[in-house]
Structure formats: C-alpha cells, structure tokens
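User: Second chain of the day. Same drill as before.
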Amino acid sequence: MLFAIRPDLEQSKVFDGLNLFLVERLLAALESRPVDETHLPVGLCAAIAGNQPTRAAVDALTAKLTALGQGQKQALRDALVLRTDPCAFLSDRDAPLPAIPEAVFPALKALAVHLFQRTAKLNGVEQACGECIDDHYARFRQRDAPGNGNVCCVCGTEYLAQVRADENDNEQWRGPYDHLLAKDLYPLYGVDPKNLLPICNTCNSKAKLAKDLVLKAGVRRLSFSPWTEQASLQEIEVVVDDANELFPRVVVNLRSADPDRQEKLSTWDDVYEIKSRVEGEFKELAAKLAEDAHAPNDASFLLKLREVRLAKAQAERLTPFNYWRARVYAAVSGMNPRSREALRQATTPTPQAIQDMEALFFQ
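Assistant: Same format as last time:
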C-alpha cells in the first residue's frame, strides 16, 4: 500500500446498508425469526423484496440456511455475531476465517455477487440509503482531505478514473472497487464497505485478478490493511543500477528488518506487481529525464533534479507516477558523478530531433 488512506472519510452508505441487510438476513434465518429492520435503512428491505432477482437470491440462501443442522447453524451464527473486520484477516494470520458450510457457500456467493453488482444500483436501494455508490466514490477521490485524490493509493501509477469536464462528481466515470477479500472466495464480505477499496483498473483487472491477499498455495500470509497501513519511505528503496547494463536501469527494492513487515511488502508486490510495473515504466530513463530535467551541465542538472523531485513529491496524489519520479530523480542525484554525467548527456536531443520538433510545433 503506497499512500495512506486519510481518516474521517464517510464510508459508502449503500454498501453499509446492504452489508447490514446481509448479516441480519443470515442471522434471522439461522435463528428462525423474522428480519429485524431496526438497524437497517428505512425502506431497504422493501426495495430488496420488490426486486424479483434479488428476492430470488435471498430466498435461495434462506432455504439453504434453514436446512442446516443445529451445530452448523450455531457455528455460523457465532461467527456472524463476532462481526470481525475483514481487514483483521489481512494483518493477523491467526485470525480464524469464518467457515461457511459447503451446502450454503454457492447460494451465499450468488447473493453477495448479486448485491454488489446489481442490487446496489437499484433506485429504491439508493433512496433508502440516501445516496448512490458514485457519491462515495466522489468523496474518496476528492483532492482535499478526507478525500484521497484521483491517483491509485495502492500503486501510485494510474488514475482511479479519468475526469471529464462539465460533469457532476456523481456522473464522472468510476474505476473499480477492489474486494480486498475476493467476493468469490469470501462471500460473507462481498458488500462489506471495509472490504471495498477504490483502486485503478491496472491493479484490479491486470495485476491482482484472482490473487488472494489472505492465502497463497493454501498458506496464510500477511498483507497491508489499507485503511490503516502503508509501506514506509524507508521500506521502498529506489536505486539506479549502472553496473551490469548497457544503460542504467531503475531498480525497486522492498525491504524491512521486521519479518512481518517484510511479508506484507512481499504480498503487496506479489498481488499488485509494484516492482515490475515501476521498473518497466522507467526502462526509458533518459526519456523521462529529458522530459523533466534536461540541463546543459551537471551542476544545473542537479539543481533541476532537486526542483523537479520536490514538485513531484508535493503532487504525488495529483498525477500518476509523481511519487515514483520523485524517488527515481533522488536516486539519479545520488549516482556516481561520472555515471550521472553520462546519463545527463543521453538526455540531450540530437540536432535532427530539435529540427523535427521545431518543424512540427513552431512553423
């Protein structure tokens, strides 16, 4: 986790309401009683009951729960009453995962997926909860605290979603919500707002895919709890290696002397492919420097690097890769002077390139 999630951000009222409904529906079936709407948004149960596909998914799950033996009912009920925060399973490998009976799992998964993908968008559900999902998303990515900016907090390499001019916040394009505990594997948390984190499309749909933050090859592992944890500046080492390459290459190392922290760093990298993505972006290091810090000599190069990295660091949540550019340019500043000078010279455009640019833009 690269950027800290800022505190005091109000969570999604839609996901919160649906999660309360799901837990109460489970408890009611396990305890053979009607649903208690006391702590649910007013009108939410009616909105859900009025939608036939959602009602069918609820009824299918209720039938499976009702058919369980008393011992299974009690074990599942006890797990629900605990109301364990889903992020507790990320930061504590000994926290026992709720055991979902095999007879119930497919129906629970089907309902959780349906609630997340379909029910959450129903007009009646939005009216009962007092907002739509886009309202929460807009709060999350507001530039100023408690918003977190429009750059992905997990990687810092991509916008959450592009912003269009002349559109209201809740009508802007929206990137994905990542299920920290995958809804297909942990359906009990399929609509838990603490399990749903806005991230970029690359993190969600290209890097993570079906990877499990909790288990790897059946073994529990530690992961950052993104609402409360992040990698520290000292745990992310960025260097420019010019020892064994024809051209200097950027290397990212994730290191901690604390074994638990090291495991969290390794999980972060394994699931979201941080190291590979950043190193890949800076394979064309000279081109990046030419964009940001072209200078006629080493002294002015160093001054330019300092100026640019400070500006990038101050705007790390504003534009993708700003954080990483600041770290890379700091590493370039610390290079051996001879190697740094060779790199600076590689950023100088050729006379032909200058002529082509002038012909394209200034004539």
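The radius of gyration is 25 Å.

User: Great, on to the next one.
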